[in-house]
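Slides due. Your pick:
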Amino acid sequence: MRKAQAKKLPLAPDARYNDKLVTRFVNNLMWQGKKSGAFVIFYDAIEKVSKQTSEDGYEIWRRALQNVTPSVEVRSRRIGGATFQIPAEVRADRKISLSMKWLIRYSRERNGRSMADKLANEIVAAAKGEGAAFKKKEDTHRMAEANKAFAHFRV
């Protein structure tokens, strides 16, 4: 029997935008426990986004997250010796988590001088419906669509 599931700690909203989503994003962005450095990178990226697009950087970041958020994914399930990729709806909490992780991961893989530059470029690309993070979402949806025939195996 498994133990009780750990309780989720409430997140404190960030200072500038008073948004818990920003804090959650920064927690994913953080490296080696350096949260203040992660906040500096995030705020610099948002400023660079607003300079590039001459719009509100925070709103563009929200739109980028929305564009990268997946609605379906494939989950592996073993049935009678064979492993099937079964399409499944993504839980609300996991949707946000995946979109943030993809945005950060593909920002890190980009070419650029600083992490703030790379993050800003990925945010702008994702807001337009381009970039590697958006492509990852499209690939995930395509994979779920291709394996729709196995949907009846869903638990």
About this structure: The chain has a mean pLDDT of 93.
